[in-house]
Amino acid sequence: xETRLDREGFKYWCSDLPYPNRLIVKHPNTGGGLAxxxxxxxxxxxxxxxxxxxxxxxxxxxxxxxxxxxxxGWSEYNSQAKSWALLNHLRSFVEGSWSCISDFNAILSSSExxxxxxxxxxxxxxxxxxxxxxxxxxxxxxxYPFTWNNKGPGEANMKERLDQAVATGDWxxxxxLTTVTHLSSHASDHLPIILxx
Length: 197
Hints:
The chain is of the alpha+beta class. Helices cover 19% and strands 33% of the residues.
């Protein structure tokens, strides 16, 4: 998940959560960062990380092995190629089924945006191409269609579905009952999303 909390903030605000395992990395010189929290009984090994991702290997109780990437894409349009280069690079570490849950900071189609400012088709094409190149497909969602709101007034308001979960076909076959739900948020400009397998 994207977070503004550092390790001390997590310790203070999230100590009551039933997730004793935590990875937290802060983006230098900004308020943002990434956090991954999980239950004690989940077998998960960190492969690598940067301020833009965590890549972990998960082993299910039945021995099924899959890879999870928590991803935070570059938000500036002129830097988004870095997001797709990182995604392509991460694929080289994945041996088998793969799922990414992410703030990609990009949309797949114009229907994922509500704004007076249209998104350039090249940006959407680049995102679709990066997913296709890595055999990743959108897992869909339940709930409100937009996960980010700039909270601008009137015509300056912009809403987009920037946060998504995607996966390879073999991952989707293994977890065929998966749901992705957009939850509500009162404080953040992003809605949290939950991936349930």
